[in-house]
Amino acid sequence: MSYFAKMRGSSHSPPGVGISEILWSWLGAFAGIAAVALVNYQWLAGSDLVMIVGSFGASAVLIYGAVKSPLAQPRNLMGGHIFSAIIGVACFHLFGAHLWLAAAMAVATAIAVMHATKTLHPPGGATALIAVIGGPKIHALGYLYVLVPVALGAAIMLAVALLINNIPKNRSYPQFWL
Q: Which residues fall within 8 angstroms of residue 45, CB to CB, at 6 or more apart?
């Protein structure tokens, strides 16, 4: 197959999902983001800590909307975010004088480490990037960023996923832990 022919794709779009799947995904995403946002805006308001980062929105798509995906499993959710947060903070400290370099190194290295550790979780790339471009409040956290918001926020979302995704008889989460 030629180089450009590969860009046509090799299969058809997956089938759509029913209204029940849509509603359970909506409920899970609402409850998961609400729980993390509640901690952020009610309990941490006025502190230097943050609890909600943009990459959690992408995690919500996976863990509530694509519950069978290998990328949505607990190992990937937690490991992908935690490894990526560590890498993002390290890259900011090492290359922060050149943000373009810190950003590229953080995302590329996070992907490589997630692959090597079998924790690939696409929102992890955003978690690494946020550590670099997140602004003064994120930068002030330093490696605390790994624990709060990243690990704790992902753990809250995981707890909600375990509760919500197992209510309907036709959904089961997780597919695997390790």
A: none
pTM: 0.95
- How open is the CA angle 129-130-135, to the nearest 5 degrees? 125
Task: Report DSSP letters for 41-99, one per residue.
Answer: IIISTTSS-----THHHHHHHHHHH-TTSGGGSHHHHHHHHHHHHHHHHHHHHHHTTSH
Percent of the chain with pLDDT over 70: 100
Phi and psi for 53 in degrees, rounded to 5? -125, 155
Q: Contact 109/91 with Cβ under 8 angstroms?
A: yes
Query: Contact at 8 Å (CB) between 52 and 37?
Result: yes
pLDDT in tens, 89-134: 999 999 999 999 999 999 999 999 999 999 999 999 999 999 999 9
46 confidence band (pLDDT: 50, 70, 90): confident
User: Which helix (H) or strand (E) is 177 found in, with range?
Assistant: none
